[in-house]
Amino acid sequence: MRQIDNFIAGEYTGAASGRRFDKRSPLDNRIIASIAEAGRPEIDAAVGAARAALHGEWGALSTEQRVDLLYGVADEITRRFEDFVAAEMADTGQPGHVMRHVFIPRGAANFKVFADVIKNVPAESFRMATPDGRGALNYAIRVPKGVVGVICPWNAPFMLMTWKVGPALACGNTVVVKPSEESPQTAALLGEVMNAVGIPKGVYNVVHGLGPDSAGEFLTRHPGVDAITFTGETRTGTAIMQAAAEGMRDVSFELGGKNAGIVFADCDFDAAVEGISRAAFLNTGQVCLGTERVYVERPIFERFVQALKARAEAVKYGRPEDHDSSYGPLISHEHRNKVLSYYRKAVELGATVVTGGGVPDVPDDLAEGAWVQPTIWTGLADDAAPVREEIFGPCCHVRPFDSEDEVVKLANDTPYGLATTIWTTNLARAHRVAARVDVGITWVNSWFLRDLRTPFGGSKQSGIGREGGVHSLEFYTETRNVCVKL
Ligand SMILES: NC(=O)c1ccc[n+]([C@@H]2O[C@H](COP(=O)([O-])OP(=O)(O)OC[C@H]3O[C@@H](n4cnc5c(N)ncnc54)[C@H](O)[C@@H]3O)[C@@H](O)[C@H]2O)c1
Ligand SMILES: O=C/C=C/C=C(\O)C(=O)O
């Protein structure tokens, strides 16, 4: 069993209280790690270390020096690639090929991309006239926000954590990261990388623990934290925003979704089935950008449902290291209880269960894991809970539609506004519908295709602010104007 400690001022340390909590494998429910639970003293120490680094060696570096160090971080992640793959597979139970091709490479990319952004961003400047005819020159400079609190979820732990830490450090901030209690390992491992490449002590700190009345709340309420970036549930975002109001700290939120997939009859059928099945079932449906509501134009509805069913039934349950495994468990039994409660509710509300709806038969050694079947429903009312609420599981409801106006209305009938995916070969329609869907991110004939320079975030209750490319700088820096009378 692994011992995972907090990482404060470049050192791994337990908690003064001696408190620890267990991490269980989602694959078979075995305890795989014991994690030190940070209390107020550890949060104080981590925030203090972050502040000291800001006023010390880190704060004195030039942008070029910081950029070089961040390239070093990316290279070291790549050098220790298999360690990160193993740590994340252990925490999430997701297949190795997803780790190797999507989540861990993105961790390295998140440092490289923002190092490039900060190196290349121009300064804003305005020349102005003055009554004496000599004029004045305004220019903006960007300074770090300070100590940034980073609160992360468990569904793609390393990718989502570095998506925040990369730009925060590129902009010259220091961070205190609180990973999810369900996925502490890659954040802990990144401490070794930081030390190996010579990132000054205190720049990157990790405190472990739970949310309310634990490390998460202590960190977000700490007056020494200047800004908070959070990815997780909308309800948690509300609690964090209340904490951030004290002291008027800035927030950046990437929250939940109930994303629509829109499939027109003129789509490339096979590509659409493949795309929607990835959007619904990748990472066992635990992707904020995933599709839990699918709208299919009536002429191809039945055929589409059958093709999606075939995809769902083709998943291969297995351990992450099994080469032919394509599908992992949910993160925990607690989360499985939630997902299964929606599976039951859908039936109670009269859904037709096209496939799935329960717990699969898995080999004996996996029987205690948090497995659920990929599940497809039809026939639910538009206001049924499984169609309205974020389930965060491998499931979707498929419903026919007859017109563009109707489907836009259906897609927008939600308090969320994160992402949508549209499938059509009619270019004009693609642009038209994309402009009418109230979300932060629209994919046309694709899903989760990420250019890290683009604005990323949610509308409505799916988030506040945008991260990605120069948009991250809006949050991770304070812009100051200097006006020089000539
Ligand atoms: N929009 C996006 O980009 C995006 C990306 C990934 C996940 N998500 C969302 O994340 C959710 C799944 O992740 P989750 O279950 O880990 O989310 P969560 O909100 O339960 O937990 C996220 C983090 O917040 C901490 N936390 C909980 N309560 C807190 C409190 N009161 N104060 C401070 N910290 C607290 C948790 O310990 C954890 O580290 C889904 O809703 C999903 O849609 C959104
Ligand atoms: O589960 C959510 C996935 C979010 C993805 C990103 O934040 C990203 O690709 O940067």
TrEMBL record:
<dbReference type="InterPro" id="IPR016163">
    <property type="entry name" value="Ald_DH_C"/>
</dbReference>
<dbReference type="GO" id="GO:0016620">
    <property type="term" value="F:oxidoreductase activity, acting on the aldehyde or oxo group of donors, NAD or NADP as acceptor"/>
</dbReference>
<comment type="similarity">
    <text>Belongs to the aldehyde dehydrogenase family.</text>
</comment>
<dbReference type="InterPro" id="IPR029510">
    <property type="entry name" value="Ald_DH_CS_GLU"/>
</dbReference>
<keyword id="KW-0520">NAD</keyword>
<keyword id="KW-0560">Oxidoreductase</keyword>
<dbReference type="InterPro" id="IPR016161">
    <property type="entry name" value="Ald_DH/histidinol_DH"/>
</dbReference>
<feature type="domain" description="Aldehyde dehydrogenase">
    <location>
        <begin position="16"/>
        <end position="482"/>
    </location>
</feature>
<dbReference type="InterPro" id="IPR017628">
    <property type="entry name" value="OHmuconic_semiald_DH"/>
</dbReference>
<dbReference type="InterPro" id="IPR016162">
    <property type="entry name" value="Ald_DH_N"/>
</dbReference>
<dbReference type="InterPro" id="IPR015590">
    <property type="entry name" value="Aldehyde_DH_dom"/>
</dbReference>
<dbReference type="Pfam" id="PF00171">
    <property type="entry name" value="Aldedh"/>
</dbReference>
<dbReference type="InterPro" id="IPR016160">
    <property type="entry name" value="Ald_DH_CS_CYS"/>
</dbReference>
<protein>
    <submittedName>
        <fullName>2-hydroxymuconic semialdehyde dehydrogenase</fullName>
        <ecNumber>1.2.1.85</ecNumber>
    </submittedName>
</protein>
<feature type="active site">
    <location>
        <position position="254"/>
    </location>
</feature>
